[in-house]
Amino acid sequence: MSEENTSQNSYESNPNATVDEISSIDDIRQGMLLIGTVTNTTKFGAFVNVGIKETGLVHISEIANQFVVDPSDFVQIGQEVKVLVTDVDPSRGRISLSIKRVEE
Questions:
Q1: pLDDT at 1
Q2: pLDDT (tens digit, 9 = 90+) per residue, 46-92?
Q3: How far is the C-alpha of 28 from the C-alpha of 74, rounded, in Å?
Q4: How many Å apart are CA 19 and CA 94, to the nearest integer?
Q5: How many whole angstroms separate alpha carbon 91 and alpha carbon 74?
Q6: What's the rounded Cα separation, in Å, for the pair 61 and 16?
Q7: Are 4 and 68 in contact (CB under 8 A)?
Q8: Class of 3-16+26-98 per CATH?
Q9: Which of 8, 14, 65, 92 is most enclosed, with most CB atoms within 10 A?
Protein backbone atom coordinates (compact mmCIF):
# COMPACT_ATOMS: atom_id res chain seq x y z
CA MET A 1 0.00 0.00 0.00
CA SER A 2 1.39 3.39 -0.93
CA GLU A 3 1.99 6.15 1.59
CA GLU A 4 -0.76 8.22 -0.05
CA ASN A 5 -3.32 5.44 0.38
CA THR A 6 -2.29 4.88 3.99
CA SER A 7 -2.83 8.53 4.91
CA GLN A 8 -6.14 8.62 3.05
CA ASN A 9 -7.43 5.50 4.82
CA SER A 10 -6.46 6.78 8.25
CA TYR A 11 -8.32 10.02 7.55
CA GLU A 12 -11.56 8.32 6.47
CA SER A 13 -12.58 7.80 10.10
CA ASN A 14 -13.32 11.55 10.24
CA PRO A 15 -13.88 12.79 6.69
CA ASN A 16 -15.84 15.88 7.77
CA ALA A 17 -13.08 18.30 8.65
CA THR A 18 -13.83 21.87 9.58
CA VAL A 19 -12.65 24.75 7.43
CA ASP A 20 -9.99 25.52 10.07
CA GLU A 21 -8.47 22.07 9.49
CA ILE A 22 -8.14 22.61 5.72
CA SER A 23 -5.31 24.85 4.64
CA SER A 24 -4.12 23.18 1.42
CA ILE A 25 -5.02 20.56 -1.15
CA ASP A 26 -3.02 18.05 0.92
CA ASP A 27 -5.68 18.32 3.65
CA ILE A 28 -8.51 17.36 1.27
CA ARG A 29 -9.52 13.68 1.21
CA GLN A 30 -11.93 11.66 -0.89
CA GLY A 31 -15.23 11.29 0.95
CA MET A 32 -15.08 14.65 2.75
CA LEU A 33 -18.21 16.78 2.83
CA LEU A 34 -17.44 20.47 2.39
CA ILE A 35 -19.28 23.74 2.01
CA GLY A 36 -18.07 25.87 -0.87
CA THR A 37 -19.02 28.78 -3.09
CA VAL A 38 -19.64 28.52 -6.82
CA THR A 39 -17.07 30.76 -8.54
CA ASN A 40 -17.78 29.98 -12.19
CA THR A 41 -20.01 27.88 -14.42
CA THR A 42 -19.01 26.46 -17.79
CA LYS A 43 -20.62 24.16 -20.33
CA PHE A 44 -18.90 21.19 -18.62
CA GLY A 45 -19.59 21.99 -14.96
CA ALA A 46 -19.15 24.39 -12.07
CA PHE A 47 -16.06 25.50 -10.18
CA VAL A 48 -16.37 25.67 -6.40
CA ASN A 49 -14.09 27.44 -3.91
CA VAL A 50 -13.71 25.22 -0.85
CA GLY A 51 -11.44 27.61 1.05
CA ILE A 52 -8.04 26.85 -0.45
CA LYS A 53 -6.02 28.10 -3.44
CA GLU A 54 -7.28 25.38 -5.80
CA THR A 55 -10.92 25.38 -6.81
CA GLY A 56 -12.79 22.12 -7.19
CA LEU A 57 -14.77 21.07 -10.24
CA VAL A 58 -18.28 19.67 -10.13
CA HIS A 59 -18.56 17.95 -13.51
CA ILE A 60 -21.89 18.48 -15.27
CA SER A 61 -22.77 14.82 -14.62
CA GLU A 62 -22.34 15.38 -10.84
CA ILE A 63 -24.57 18.44 -10.48
CA ALA A 64 -28.02 16.84 -10.30
CA ASN A 65 -29.83 13.50 -10.48
CA GLN A 66 -31.35 14.53 -13.78
CA PHE A 67 -29.97 15.45 -17.19
CA VAL A 68 -28.20 18.82 -17.03
CA VAL A 69 -27.89 20.83 -20.24
CA ASP A 70 -26.68 24.07 -18.66
CA PRO A 71 -25.08 24.04 -15.19
CA SER A 72 -26.27 27.61 -14.59
CA ASP A 73 -29.83 26.25 -14.54
CA PHE A 74 -28.90 24.48 -11.28
CA VAL A 75 -26.17 26.59 -9.62
CA GLN A 76 -25.36 30.28 -9.70
CA ILE A 77 -22.08 32.14 -9.19
CA GLY A 78 -21.84 33.10 -5.52
CA GLN A 79 -24.18 30.30 -4.39
CA GLU A 80 -23.11 28.29 -1.35
CA VAL A 81 -23.22 24.55 -2.01
CA LYS A 82 -22.52 21.38 -0.03
CA VAL A 83 -20.19 19.09 -1.98
CA LEU A 84 -18.70 15.62 -1.65
CA VAL A 85 -15.04 15.19 -2.59
CA THR A 86 -14.95 12.36 -5.14
CA ASP A 87 -11.26 12.54 -6.08
CA VAL A 88 -8.15 14.54 -5.23
CA ASP A 89 -4.95 14.79 -7.28
CA PRO A 90 -2.53 17.07 -5.39
CA SER A 91 0.23 16.66 -7.98
CA ARG A 92 -2.04 18.14 -10.67
CA GLY A 93 -3.88 20.50 -8.31
CA ARG A 94 -7.27 18.95 -9.10
CA ILE A 95 -10.24 18.38 -6.83
CA SER A 96 -13.29 16.55 -8.19
CA LEU A 97 -16.57 17.27 -6.43
CA SER A 98 -20.18 16.13 -6.52
CA ILE A 99 -23.35 17.93 -5.51
CA LYS A 100 -25.75 15.11 -6.40
CA ARG A 101 -24.02 12.52 -4.18
CA VAL A 102 -24.37 14.62 -1.02
CA GLU A 103 -26.80 12.90 1.32
CA GLU A 104 -29.39 15.37 2.52
A1: 39
A2: 999 999 999 999 999 999 999 999 999 999 999 999 999 999 999 99
A3: 25
A4: 18
A5: 30
A6: 23
A7: no
A8: mainly beta
A9: 8
